[in-house]
């Protein structure tokens, strides 16, 4: 069964990180944007990350950050995957010589495919509901029917996801991964155990439903074959 990956973003507390991992989160996100209410310092993020088990990705969110700020975080957390959420150029993103995630604000529509192709080392594109170059985490979803273009990279869906709508997102978009922040919070930067549990259960149920539909379609195709 194809499984949709989940990144829980905006972690500020070790106990929330541990709960997220216990519930099956594949990645945890740390916001290093000074203006964000979910901001965490590099030392605090490194402390949280050090307590995590293996095979859980650590992702650092930056917004048009000075190069030295990114390098400081990468030095403190060598396995950190940078996620660039502003108007960073491809040259800037590629300069750190490692795979990264590039966030695309789709409030004004998707960019041209040629513009995306410039981000050669991007491990995936994260699509959020914010305006281009603005920070996500607004809690607002966008019209998923606009996602008709092949991005050329794995699609990570963000923007207003919660346990109530994530099943629909999985069924309609079939993203590689989901990124959730406000949809599993009791306050900005404070995760809610029950909300995280409900979100992960909704994703698993949607994956199971989609797998069942594929199996039914495959079975129907086999059954319509000509018998010799």
Fold blueprint:
Layout: E1 5-8, H1 14-22, E2 27-31, H2 42-50, E3 57-62, H3 67-76, E4 81-84, H4 90-94, E5 100-105, H5 113-117, E6 122-128, E7 155-157, H6 166-173, E8 177-180, E9 185-187, E10 190-191, H7 193-223
Parallel strand pairs: 1-2, 1-8, 2-3, 3-4, 4-5, 5-6, 6-7, 7-8
Antiparallel strand pairs: 9-10
Helix pairs in contact: 6-7
Architecture overview:
By secondary structure, the protein is α/β, with parallel strands linked by helices. The chain has a single domain (5-184), classed as TIM Barrel (Alpha-Beta Barrel), CATH 3.20.20. It is 34% helix and 19% strand. It is built from 7 helices and 10 strands. It has helices spanning 14-22, 42-50, 67-76, 90-94, 113-117, 166-173, 193-223, and strands at residues 5-8, 27-31, 57-62, 81-84, 100-105, 122-128, 155-157, 177-180, 185-187, 190-191. The strands form 2 sheets. Strands 1-2-3-4-5-6-7-8 form an 8-stranded parallel barrel. A two-stranded antiparallel ribbon has the order 9-10. β5, α5 (113-117) and β6 form a beta-alpha-beta unit. It is globular and about 60 Å long. It starts with a strand and ends in a 5-residue tail after the last helix. The mean pLDDT is 90.
